[in-house]
Amino acid sequence: MIRIRPLVAALLACATAPAAAQQQPADPHAGHVHPAPPAASASAPEPSALPPFIPPLTDADRAAAFPDVHGHMVHDDVVRAFVLADELEWRSGGERDGAHWDLDGWIGKDVRRLWFRTEGISEGDRLDEAHAHVLYGHAVAPWWEVVGGIRQDFEPGRSQTWAAAGIQGFAPYRIDLEVTGYLGGEGRTQLRADAANDLRLTRRLIVQSRVEASLNGKADAERLIGAGLSSMEVGLRFRYEIRRELAPYAGVVWRSTFFETADFARAAGEDVGGFQLVAGVRLWR
Question: Would 17 be classed as within a structural domain?
């Protein structure tokens, strides 16, 4: 006779074994032993240690690398000088053959400078026009400065002194511009403008275009100068730079007087203007 109780117990044991196996899966790494990390070698250098051929950093090294500069270092506090003979030439044509010069320069620093200018024209061995400036210049923007001082006229007529004030610098497209106003004796006023542009055709060949004009507030019959637009000159010069500081050139200029100034010139038997060929040299230092 089969015993019922042991048989039921055996069936229950077989039924619960798979469920227990599903609830707790076997660990595939069971019984594995992880090796202990190797002990650090006492002789291995630290990552921050320097090679033996590099000496250790000292306080003297740090002081040499970061010196005390006592604030911002200024590199433009040096007195310099510059002289430019933009036009040293002989003009030929019409009734006014002769020499012409136009020089300027400065001495000073980047912001404040003392300027000088001089310009003149001769007819043969006779000095026809000549004047000189002494001006103080102060930079007001990159490439621009205001100037003020005096101008002394030597010819034509008796000497005359003017107070001068103006602005000069580089306009867009690298136009070298000077605009200066003058106040003279007996309430005379004058405005002069000079604009020049250098166009580089090759590394050494440059063509310069230039326009100069003068306007006067009052007539001056002694000097054959009328009121309003008195004179204008337009020039085109081709120069070849043997060196940057030395460049011979040749070209053509057109010069004319206008309105009352032209009337004064005709009455005195003077030439009122025309074209002239020019040849000369440009120097700077």
Answer: no
